[in-house]
Every structure is written in C-alpha cells, then in structure tokens.
Design goal:
The complex is a heterotrimer of chains A (about 350), B (about 375) and C (about 90).
Chain A lengths: L23 H15 L2 H4 L13 E8 L5 E2 L2 E2 H15 L2 E13 L4 H18 L2 E10 L7 E11 L15 E4 L5 H7 L19 H11 L3 E6 L4 H13 L2 E5 L7 H10 L12 E5 L4 H9 L8 E7 L6 E4 L5 E3 L13
Parallel strand pairs in A: 4-5, 9-12
Antiparallel strand pairs in A: 1-6, 2-3, 4-6, 7-10, 7-11, 8-10, 9-11, 12-13
Chain B lengths: L9 H14 L4 E7 H9 L10 E8 L1 H4 L2 H12 L4 E4 L13 H6 L4 E3 L3 H10 L5 E7 L4 H14 L4 E8 L1 H10 L7 E5 H7 L4 H8 L3 E4 L3 H17 L4 E3 L11 H10 E8 L3 E10 L8 H4 L15 H5 L31 H14 L1
Parallel strand pairs in B: 1-2, 1-7, 3-4, 3-5, 5-6, 7-8, 8-9
Antiparallel strand pairs in B: 6-11, 10-11
Chain C lengths: L4 E11 L4 E8 L2 E6 L11 E5 L2 E5 L2 H28 L1
The chains are: A alpha+beta (about 350), B alpha/beta (about 375), C alpha+beta (about 90).
Chain lengths: ~350, ~375, ~90
C-alpha cells in the first residue's frame, strides 16, 4: 500500500519495553511516530483526554482486534480496528465522529510494521471521516502478547430518523445480506500455514457508515434492525436475532451471494460459508413493503453490489434459523460450539 | 464447479424423488456407510424430502467417530509430554479424550496444528529438524494412501523426526460386522464412493452374495445419493440383490491400482478397535515393520493408562444403526455439541450431531 | 470416505529428479497443489478428484453423463409402460 507518510529515521528498529514506560522512548515514539501520522487539532492538544462538544443523541461502542496474521490480503489489523468500530456505530444508526486508539505491543515488534499499521489507520479514518482523538500505548514482554493488539472505542451521533432495535422486528420482515459473504475469513485462511492456497480473494474490510446513512436518510424507521456479520459469519448473526428477538428466521440457500473462488475454497476445506467471518457485510431486517427500493439503493452502492434478499422473519419455529437448501430440503442452521475447522470427512 | 454442481441440480433431484415415490411400495431400511454421505443428507435437507417409507440409518463411516479414546489420549500425550508438533486433520481436534481434546491441549500451550494434507506435515518436519513432528493419521481407505505417501516422502528426504500415529479403519469388515449382528435391521447399503475410488468394487461381491444384500456404490452429492437410493429400492422391490456402481465417474472396477500398491507397500492389515463397537478382526492398517521408524506407537514411549468409555455414551449402538440418537437418555441433555460425551456428537457428520441439528425439522414436518 | 472434490489440472511440475509429479489444480478458481503420484497418466486439462492434497481419481466423462441418461431411460420405460396400458384399454 502507498504510505501517506514516509517513515522518518528512528534510531530503533524494534519496539522494546522502554517505549511503553512513559519516559523518553515513549515520548519519541509518540511524537515522531503516532502523532505525526494521526495529527488533528484535538489530538495535537496532547491532553490526557480529549475535550469536545457533540450535539444530539449519542452512540458509543468499543472493540478489540487480535487478528492473526496482522497483514492479510486486502488489509491489516489497523484497517479492521477503524472500520470495525465505525461499523458497530453505524449498525446502531450512528455516524462515527471520534475514536480512541490503544495499542498493546509485544516487545520486538518491528517499527516499520507499526508505521504501516499507523498509516492504514490514518487512511481508514480519512475515508470514514473520523478522527482519533485520544489513545494509549503499552508494551508487554515477549511472549505475553501476539505482535500487536488494538482496541478502538468510538462515539457517534445518532441519525434523527434511526430507530433500530430488536423489538422493531416483525413477522414478515425481509432479511437482506449486503454483499458476498465469507471473503474475509477465506482471505485469512488462504495464508494460514498448512492450509494455504493461491487466490485473488481479499478481505472485504471497509467502512459502512455512509451506506447506512443513505439507507436511513431514505427509509428511516422502516429499517428495523442492522448488524454487521463478523466472527461466526451470517449464521451467528441470524441465530442471535432469532434467539434474542424470540422469533423464527427462514432463509433460502439459493439467494445467498457467494464469490466463485470463495465457494471453491469452502468446498476444498469443507467449510460452510455461512459461518465464515466477514468484515464489510451486514444483515438488514426491513419492512417488506420497501424491499425493492432498499435493494435498488444498496446495489448502487460500491459496498453492496451483490446485496440479496435471503429470507424473512416468521412466527414459526421460534428461536430457530431454518434454511431451505438449493434442492428444496430443509435443515436447521445452529450456532456453532466454537470456531469452524476444516475437515476431511 | 464442473463435475460437482450438476449433481446438485434441483430439477434432476426432483426427477429422482418422483421416480422414488413411484417405485416404493413398502418400508425399507437403508444405511449410508460414509459420514460424508450423512453430512450431505443433512446439509441439503435430503432427509426431509425422502418418502416416509424410506428410513435412512447412519453408518459407522466416520473415522473421527470410531477412533478409540485411547488413541486420542496418545495424541494429547505426544503433544503435551513429548513436546511434539502434533499435526492433525481439523475433524479430530474437538473429539474428547478421557481428560481433554486436542483443541483443549492446544489451548493449554501444546503445539497442535491443523493441516490440509499429511504432505504438509513432512514439510514441517523438514523445516523443524530439532523437533519431532507427529501426524495423526486417521481415515478410511480413501485417506490411507495419502498418509502412506507422507511416510514415503519422509523416507526419501531422509527425515528422522517424522512419524505417524495410525488410526486407519476399513469399510468392508465394518459392513460385515453390522450385517452379522443379530440386531441388524439394515436391508441395503449405500457404499462409500470415495473409498471405492481407491479399492475398486471387487471387495463387495462376497458381501452381496454371502448376505444376499443389495449394495450400491454411491457418491456424495444429492443427485448421487438419490440415484443410489433409487437403484437400491429397485433391487429390494424386485427381491434381487447385486452390486451396482452409481459413482462410475470416479470409481472404476479395479480402483486406483497405484494407490493400492502404496498401501500394500506401507501397511499391513490388522485387527482394529472401533470406538463404541469393539474389535473387528482384520479391519485396520498398521505400518509395516520396514517403516517402524515412522510409527509413533513404536518410536515413543507412550505410557498412559487405558481409560474406559463413558458408560452413558451409547455410540456403539448408534454406529451400528441399532438405536437412534434420540433414544439415548443423554441426547440433548448431558450430551450436546458443546459438551459431547462421545464422538458421534462432535463430528460434523456423526449420527448424533446430524440428529441434533436436524431433529427440530423432524418435529416440524 | 470423505471430502474429495474435482478440480482441473492447470500445470504439472516434476520434482525430486522426476520421481514426483505435483499439479496445480483449480477448484472454482482457487489453486492448490496436489500430488499426482497415484495418477501417473493424469495430464494438464484433466479433471481429477483430490483428497487431502493427493489426486485419487481421474474423471470418466462417459460415466459422468450416465447419471442423467439413467433418468431418460427410466422416463422412456415409464412412457412405454403407459402406452402399453393405454393400448390395452
């Protein structure tokens, strides 16, 4: 990726415990490193905390990022950290405004890798129109971390017409998936030692806040519920909706959008794409009367070109997700007890 | 995907279903041997489409389900006590041993790795000359040649730090054991298509003749399984019994002769313990003496006690098709995919897991 | 047993002084290596069944079509039976 900021000359190649101790080394890392890349008015104040005003109803979210490998086809942990929290706020109907950013770095982590991640964070923030206004850096001993962990918390302003809650969901509501599924998980898997394969598949990590804003601008409270489908795939989100919302979910396999190569990878490894992770895909539960208009809006958006209506909410088989297979049979899509593993049988 | 997607065509499936409904006049109990076929039946919702007269019993063709408890404990021991890099197919990771599963051992710091191919394990051994690499060599006749090939590769590379922990089982003796059991209710078998790509079809003629049993060698996609069932039911309705091959696109009469040569070179047929079933004579593979250096059982001093299976787990009766998972008092209560008592609840194609995921549909239809 | 899927051989490489042939096989566009040691006659362009990194069978195209011809045959027999019954009536 094109670095927006060329790395200045540091007199250290790797991060060590001194960089997290609050002394000279920390100061150097922050001033020549972090602040140089991420600079904005609020961050430049260099207070212990950021002071600001925001009008309107607010939403607040937090998430931690521990992905391995930290660099993968289509992105890195930095982009996930920004997009993930921006998207969580968007799923509440809020436009993210400010983020906090905390690093826990393992001793020995390469400075050039940190620089690349910082630049990705900056680029993702610019694209999502958010600012990092406060943060923290800690360094732990070798073996006590896994290269780098990141936490971001975000605050955003709720769209005045947003009314997104589980209790809004009604029998007959349409279920939409916003794009091809399983790209992120398969991109990661393609680089995993022992399973690797050649592919063009990239992570689908992206910010969804402007897409959601357009959706709520156009349809307001007819958008009943939104959730992004990350770990555990769309199957986990649909089960959460069924169980927490006390309703039934019907989906049709033939409508689930899937890239051909992702399909090939899932077939080879014996994975069910419904359970594979995404980073730029969301489920929308909407009033069925506006289904066609919603689909038109989504498919015109770069993030949702392959959006599909995949099913509907029902008052039958409460708390269960039932899938109709391509051949017309039915099966239950359960929650998985843990991470899905490749199989030979 | 060519030679795959066509066999999932909904129209063709419906034509076969229509034909099945036309020809079936009485109840028949059929068994699909292979776990992969069970998985396909559940995943595609085929069970919900079959006519009521056709009862499918899920067979023991799940190498994960039949790997003895003791072997899992050995694998855990090698990872934990011998600091080996323990490599395994993903299927085995969650199966409970007497104390823990391989996944739990991994969480406790043992070096357990999931690999797609045993040939990758040989590469790992080459890259880590100071560590022992052990591959948990599980599988039926389909997988045994690949596991054998890994030993030959290691030998060719002159590696001394590679070995396999074998848990190979053979299909025909399993069918024999099921059929000879006095509680057997199965009237016809869908034999395992991929096993037969290796072994060919000849092993099944004696089973058909001696037991007057219809057997159809069948593939895995919905169209394959339905065609296999139609062929079986036609035989049963006509009162005949013969061996037929539905999976001709990949199964030839003689099978894969080169693979068979590798098997004969590397393995010997031995008596094997099947978890939940007991010992079936001449039903497994063990490494030949010549390859003793690659046999983890001989290479390492694995001193662990043999632990009895949970008395509450009735996996044996389930695997032989004598009882249904719902008849197990622990099903869904003391035994769930989250906290399984035995292997059939863990494996994605184990009979108990299949019913657990499917049973709600049965209540609905 | 088990999970084996058909893929197309895109290229073949010979390693270990001609002893081992490794193929690059495409499954719906993703490419994975597979050993051809058990299929000495497999060639570029062939469709092979791959299980755990080893090719175990080459597709028999004639047989592959039979699954669909079987239905036609049944259909023809059924028609024949119907006509015979109609004639009888």
């Amino acid at each position: 990726m094109q670095l927006s900021c060329p790395m200045p000359k540091f007199d250290f190649d790797t991060i060590n415990l001194g960089h997290g101790s609050g002394g000279v080394l920390t100061h150097r890392l922050l001033n020549s490193g972090v602040f140089t890349v991420l600079q904005n008015d609020l961050l430049n104040e260099k207070h212990d905390g950021a002071v600001f005003e925001l009008q309107g109803k607010l939403a607040f979210s937090t998430d931690s990022y521990v992905v391995s490998p930290i660099f993968f086809p289509g992105g890195n942990i930095g982009e996930l950290a920004v997009n993930g929290t921006v998207n969580d706020l968007a799923m509440c109907g809020a436009m993210a405004k400010y983020l906090s950013l905390s690093f826990i770095i393992e001793e020995g982590f390469k400075m050039k890798d940190l620089w690349t991640i910082l630049n990705s964070i900056k680029q993702s923030c610019d694209k999502a129109n958010v600012q990092i206004i406060t943060g923290d850096t800690k360094v732990v001993e070798k073996g006590k971390g896994d290269k780098i962990f990141i936490n971001t918390s975000g605050i955003g302003v709720l769209h005045p017409n947003a009314d997104i809650r589980l209790s809004k969901i009604k029998t007959g509501d349409a279920i939409i998936v916003s794009n091809n599924i399983a790209n992120h998980g398969i991109a990661i898997m393609s680089k995993r030692q022992g399973l690797e394969f050649e592919t063009d598949i990239k992570s689908d990590t992206t910010n969804l806040n402007f897409t959601i804003q357009k959706l709520i601008d156009a349809f307001g409270e007819k958008i009943h519920f939104l959730r992004d489908a990350t770990r555990g795939g769309i199957a986990s989100v649909l089960n959460e909706i069924a169980i927490d919302g006390n309703m039934g979910v019907d989906i049709q396999e033939k409508n689930i959008p899937l890239n051909e190569q992702v399909n090939g990878a899932c077939e080879m490894l014996g994975l069910d794409p419904l359970y594979v992770a995404n980073e730029g895909v969301f489920i929308a539960i909407i009033d069925a009367t506006i289904q066609n208009e919603v689909m038109q809006l989504l498919t015109e958006d770069d993030n949702c070109k392959n959006a599909k209506v995949i099913g509907s909410i029902t008052n039958e088989h409460i708390r269960q997700v039932i899938l109709q297979s391509k051949i017309g049979g039915r099966r239950v899509v359960n929650m998985l007890p843990g991470e899905q593993l490749p199989r030979i049988c | 995907m060519k030679y795959l997607s066509e066999y999932r065509d909904a129209d063709v499936v419906n034509e076969y279903l229509a034909e099945l409904k036309k020809i079936v006049t009485k109840p028949w109990t059929l068994m699909e041997i292979c776990g992969g076929q069970t998985h396909s039946l559940v995943k595609n919702g085929l069970l919900s489409l079959l006519p009521e007269n056709i009862k499918m019993v899920h067979g023991p063709g799940c190498p994960v389900c039949v790997t003895p408890l003791h072997l899992i404990d050995k694998a855990v021991f090698l990872a934990e006590e011998k600091s080996a890099i323990l490599c395994s197919y993903g299927d085995m990771l969650r199966v409970p041993g007497s104390k823990k599963s391989l996944l739990e051992a991994k969480a406790n710091g043992a070096d357990v790795r999931i690999l797609y191919s045993p040939l990758e394990a040989v590469k790992l051994a080459k890259e880590n000359p100071n560590k022992e690499v052990v591959f948990f060599a599980v599988g039926f006749e389909t997988t045994a040649p690949a596991n054998a090939l890994s030993v030959l590769h290691a030998q060719r590379e002159g590696l001394t730090n590679y070995s396999i922990l074998t848990s190979h089982v053979l299909v025909p003796p399993a069918i024999e054991a099921i059929v000879q059991d006095e509680t057997n209710i199965v009237q016809g078998f869908l034999a395992a298509g991929h096993v037969c790509t290796i072994m060919g079809i000849h092993q099944y003629f004696p089973l058909v003749e001696e037991n007057k049993l219809p057997i159809v060698i069948t593939g895995f996609e919905p169209v394959d399984i339905l065609q296999g069932i139609v062929m079986l039911v036609k035989q049963l309705e006509s009162g005949i019994h013969k061996l037929e091959n539905q999976y001709g696109r990949f199964v030839s009469d003689e099978g894969n002769v080169d693979a068979q040569k590798i098997l004969q070179n590397v393995f010997t047929i031995v008596d094997r313990e099947w978890r939940g079933i007991g010992t079936i004579p001449l039903s497994g593979y063990e490494l030949n003496e010549v390859y003793a250096a690659f046999d983890a059982n001989k290479k390492f001093d694995i001193t662990i006690d043999k632990v009895e299976e949970s008395k509450e787990c009735i996996a044996g009766e389930i695997l032989r098709g004598v009882k249904k998972p719902m008849q197990c008092p622990q099903f869904g209560k003391g035994c769930t995919p989250l906290k399984p008592l035995g292997a059939p609840m863990v494996s994605s194609e184990g009979a108990c897991a299949a019913y657990y995921h499917f049973s709600s549909i049965m209540e609905l239809t | 047993m088990c999970l084996a899927i058909p893929g197309k051989i895109l290229s073949i490489e010979t390693i270990h002084n001609g002893l081992v042939r490794m193929a690059k096989v495409s499954f719906g566009g993703i490419i994975k290596e597979a050993s051809l040691e058990m299929l000495p006659t497999a060639d570029v362009g062939d469709y092979v069944l791959v299980h755990v990194g080893v090719a175990i069978s080459k597709v028999n195209e004639e047989e592959a079509a039979k699954t669909f011809e079987y239905l036609k045959e049944i259909g023809e027999i059924d028609e024949l039976i119907e006509h015979t019954q109609v004639d009888k009536n």
